[in-house]
């Protein structure tokens, strides 16, 4: 498990090993708990960025994926989480919302879901729930910016969407779980980015006041 995720678990108050244990849950519990984890992680990032204790209750009560006024909308506006990462969380919210209001969904099967997909639906699922690999594919297809280091770019050799589709269809829960780890690591990285941006703002204000 990535040390960034271990640190995040501590910071948002979930038990050690929470993320690692998720993959052993039944599919219904996996989606519900993973969504709750992202609720907490996004709240943590927003509160860290704005550094205003007085708005903690307001932010915590916002819906996660409301496109107009949810946590993801705030993260987008603050430029703190990339499109692919937000798309992962948004699609996870759709899955969660389809399950949470009906107790009969406790027998829900992710394998059954992906087996019902046509090729285009499976492609979208594979791209959405593996955002890091989707970015590599975009680079390979000439649609993304080459910002990764050479060692990471080498991963895209002999790499295509069919590889992702096969893995997604074989074990969709594990596929989402791996993708979730990449997004959680991005959230932690954005804590550092937020700190840098706030430092830049403070420096600008300081220099302007001295001028």
Structural account:
There is one protein chain. The chain is mostly helical. The protein has one domain (3-210). It is built from 12 helices and no strands. The model is unreliable at 148-152 (pLDDT under 50).
List the helices and strands and how they pair.
Layout lengths: L2 H10 L5 H5 L4 H24 L5 H6 L9 H7 L5 H18 L9 H6 L3 H10 L2 H10 L9 H4 L7 H10 L1 H39 L1
Radius of gyration: 19 Å
Summarize the biggest pleated sheet: none
Shape: globular
| β-strand number | 0
Question: Which structural class matches the secondary elements?
Answer: mainly alpha
| Count of spatially separate domains | 1
Q: Give the helix proportion (percent range).
A: over 70%
Low-pLDDT segments, ≥5 res: 148-152
Count of alpha and pi helical runs: 12
Order of helices and strands: HHHHHHHHHHHH
Proportion of strand residues: under 5%
Mean pLDDT: 87
Task: Report the span from N to C terminus.
Answer: 48 Å
In short:
With 211 residues, this protein is mainly α. Helix content is 71%, strand content 0%.
Write out key terms for the chains shown:
single chain, mainly alpha, 12 helices, globular, 211 residues
């Amino acid at each position: 498990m990535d040390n960034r995720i271990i640190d995040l678990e501590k910071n948002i108050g979930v038990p050690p090993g929470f993320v690692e244990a998720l993959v052993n849950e039944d599919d219904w519990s996996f989606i519900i708990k993973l969504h709750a984890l992202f609720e907490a992680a996004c709240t943590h990032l927003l509160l860290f960025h704005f550094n205003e204790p007085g708005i903690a209750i307001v932010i915590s009560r916002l819906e996660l994926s409301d496109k107009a006024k949810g946590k993801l909308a705030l993260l987008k506006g603050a430029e703190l989480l990339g499109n692919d990462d937000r798309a992962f969380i948004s699609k996870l919210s759709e899955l969660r919302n389809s399950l949470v209001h009906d107790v009969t969904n406790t027998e829900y099967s992710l394998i059954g879901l992906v087996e019902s997909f046509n090729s285009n639906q499976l492609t979208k699922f594979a791209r959405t729930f593996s955002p890091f690999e989707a970015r590599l594919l975009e680079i390979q297809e000439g649609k993304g910016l080459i910002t990764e280091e050479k060692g990471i770019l080498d991963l895209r050799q002999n790499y295509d969407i069919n590889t992702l589709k096969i893995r997604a269809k074989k074990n969709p829960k594990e596929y989402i779980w791996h993708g979730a780890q990449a997004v959680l690591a991005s959230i932690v990285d954005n804590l550092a980015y937020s700190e840098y941006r706030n430092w830049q703002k403070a420096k600008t204000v300081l220099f302007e006041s001295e001028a």
